[in-house]
Design brief:
22 strands; alpha/beta; 5-stranded parallel β-sheet; 27 helices; 646 residues; elongated
């Protein structure tokens, strides 16, 4: 036992563990809902973490705090009990309101909802990948600032379910490649899942798996306070990301139930809980002994740590100014690219120019693709690559869309960055869980999806997105931009950055004609008239490349004496926010929506919709637009048929 461990008051820490164990069980029992087993099994780990993590509960957003991620969002009772004991703004009454309407203690962990929760977790494996993202963010922050202003660690607690999900493999692979030595993952290895023992479906050699991915692997008894402490001390000085395999018993202390799948997702029951407390020497409900409250509260220590950090910055005004620049996330000085009217340019190409302009104006703008930067046009030409020990702003996620989104969510939550990540639109399916969590959190992250329609062409239906626009537009609190040309693309970026929320840019592979620039206010409304008529009999509404076909169809119709208004809708979500007067000014006469996707959402505005009723085919993009009816001539004919209807 070293000098540090000799100072640990083991009897007191054991009392702390028992208190934490039964706080979690009491919360679940009071709610009659939740997961007591993980809270009871992790009590000793939580108590020792209390001795190591550097947090300031009075300021949960202090930049140089350690990041603590609980990948199993179902461990929420355990987390809330810890946060309360540590001194965060989470009262005992909040613990008693666990899983109740509008409480600060919902069933799974939610960012911006509960003080001290760094990121929204719930779908297993997401938190593991988020932790990799926080560790990567810390390394990039060190590169932009210095190693004294940013020297925190990232801790993650995960379980068997997290390691069975493929996202953990993807993200662990990248963490090992990048040698993220600031990352410490504690694996709660209790060998139990909902259906029973992990032997039913999981028998791989976890230590060998992580060593093969360039991780340090340590193992300990997850109920031995000294062993846990020794492993955490060792992990803090490794040169690789570290996995600590903590062998635990789920539901530790639950008489007759510990070590069983029965204790995973249901309350213990009043009788079992009472007998278990009696056996452990714990009295009452939600009882916290005074000595435990004093031992685990870290407010004073946290204030002192933050004060030291601010004192360091005060001695370095240039560094302090750079921190302020990064935290401001200010894009007001961006010099956006300009484009010549009549030029033919794909929106993925104009987007590449915009990305580079943004990266030159703001140091915290960063991102990359899932091995598709040359196709997505996402390379930041003036920025360095993100490589082991050289953490530039050009990120290389490899062919790992699933983890790319989760890692980017953590980058967005870190406090210094506005990240983007990119892939082909059809592969947004692989990133959908992260998209949804972005929408739930409301963080500022930009998803870039290129190759947006049947215009992909020869790659065929496996690569041609059909239903994906409708899917993304169905997400609450998530903006989807599909610009018709380079100028509209710039305006969409200006709108998106000002809204400071998650969004997606859906961009063309094929070249599109650059049209006259439009006022920013028009795009801010989500839809606006790009072609007006004094007395329109029909309105054609569209987005992206199909707007050009609608404009040509309008010329054909007006040559026949039919008044037409054409409306570009670069952001359907913004259009939904407009008042009825504005919508009536846009949509006059019969309404025909034209979009090369499923487009079921257009029924909100349109009398009829021209969309995709099947998957695409393999052929040149221009041939496919003609084949599936998106030519100007066919649009004009459909408009005439609509006008002829009663």
């Amino acid at each position: 036992m070293d000098n540090r461990q000799k100072k640990l008051d083991l009897p007191l820490l054991q009392t702390c563990a028992q208190t934490l164990r039964f706080l979690g069980a009491d919360m679940v029992q009071r709610a009659n809902s939740g997961h007591p087993g993980v809270a009871m099994g992790l009590a000793e780990v939580g108590v020792i973490l209390s001795q190591h993590v550097r947090l300031n509960p009075t300021n949960p957003h202090w930049l140089n705090r350690d990041r603590l991620v609980f990948s199993g969002g179902h461990a929420s009772a355990f987390v809330y009990a810890l946060l309360h004991l540590w001194g965060f703004d989470l009262s005992l009454e909040d613990l008693k309101a666990f899983r109740q309407l509008d409480s600060k203690t919902p069933g799974h962990l939610e960012f911006k909802h509960t003080p001290g929760v760094e990121i929204t977790t719930g779908p297993l494996g997401q938190g593991f990948a988020n932790a990799v993202g926080f560790a990567l963010a810390g390394k990039i922050a060190q590169n932009l600032l210095d190693t004294q202003s940013i020297n925190h660690k990232v801790y993650c607690v995960c379980g068997d379910g997290d390691l069975q999900e493929g996202i953990s493999y993807e993200s662990a692979s990248l963490a090992g490649h990048l040698e993220l030595d600031n990352l410490i993952v504690i694996y709660d290895s209790n060998a139990i899942t909902i259906e029973g023992g992990t032997h039913l479906a999981f028998s791989e050699n976890v230590p060998a798996r992580f060593r093969a991915q360039n991780w340090e692997v340590l193992e300990c008894n997850g109920h031995d306070l000294l062993e846990i402490d020794r492993m955490l001390v060792r992990a803090q000085s490794t040169t690789k990301p570290t996995l600590i395999i903590a062998k635990t018993t789920i539901g530790k202390g639950a008489l007759g139930l510990e070590g069983s799948a029965k204790v995973h997702g249901a309350p213990l029951g009043l009788e079992v809980l009472a007998r278990s407390k009696a056996q452990a020497g714990v009295s009452g409900e939600f009882h916290i002994p005074n000595e435990v409250a004093r031992a685990l509260n870290m407010q004073e220590r946290g204030k002192a740590l933050e004060s030291e950090w601010h004192a360091y910055l005060e001695k370095k005004p240039d560094l302090k100014a750079r921190v302020a620049h990064l935290q401001a996330k200010d894009f007001s000085k961006v010099v956006y690219p300009t484009f010549e009217v009549g030029q033919m340019i794909a929106t993925r190409t104009s987007n590449g120019a915009i990305l580079n302009a943004l990266s030159e104006a703001y140091l915290g703008f960063l991102g990359g693709s899932a091995d598709l930067a040359p196709s997505n046009n996402t390379h930041l030409t003036a920025q360095a690559d993100c490589l082991p020990r050289h953490f530039g702003r050009n990120l290389h996620f490899g062919i790992r869309e699933h983890s790319m989104g989760a890692i980017s969510n953590a980058l967005a939550n870190y406090g210094l960055f506005v990240p983007f990540c990119a892939t082909f639109f059809v592969f947004s399916d692989y990133i959908a869980p992260s998209l949804r969590l972005s929408a739930l959190m409301g963080n500022q992250i930009i998803y870039i999806f290129t190759h947006d329609s049947i215009g992909v062409g020869e790659d065929g239906p496996t690569h041609q997105p059909i239903e994906h626009l409708s899917h993304l537009r169905a997400l609450p609190n998530f903006d989807v931009f599909r610009p018709m040309d380079a100028h509209e693309n710039v305006r969409c970026w200006q709108v998106a950055l000002a809204r400071k929320k998650p969004c997606a840019f859906v961009l063309s592979r094929q070249n599109l004609e650059v049209r006259a620039n439009m006022p920013l206010e028009s795009v801010q409304k989500g839809g606006y008239a790009v072609h007006k008529h004094a007395n329109p009999q029909i309105t054609l509404i569209s987005s992206g490349s199909e707007v050009s076909a609608c404009l040509e169809a309008a010329r054909l119709l007006e040559a026949q004496g039919i008044g037409v208004q054409v409306v570009s809708v670069p952001c359907f979500d913004l259009l939904l926010e407009q008042d009825q007067d504005y919508l009536q000014s846009l949509f006059q006469g019969k309404i025909l929506a034209v979009e090369a996707g499923r487009g079921l959402e257009w029924t909100r505005f349109a009398h009829a919709h021209m969309g995709m009723e099947s998957f695409g085919k393999s052929a040149p993009g221009s041939v496919l637009f003609e084949h599936f009816g998106f030519s100007a001539q066919n649009i004009a004919q459909r408009a005439q048929k609509l006008l002829a209807q009663c």
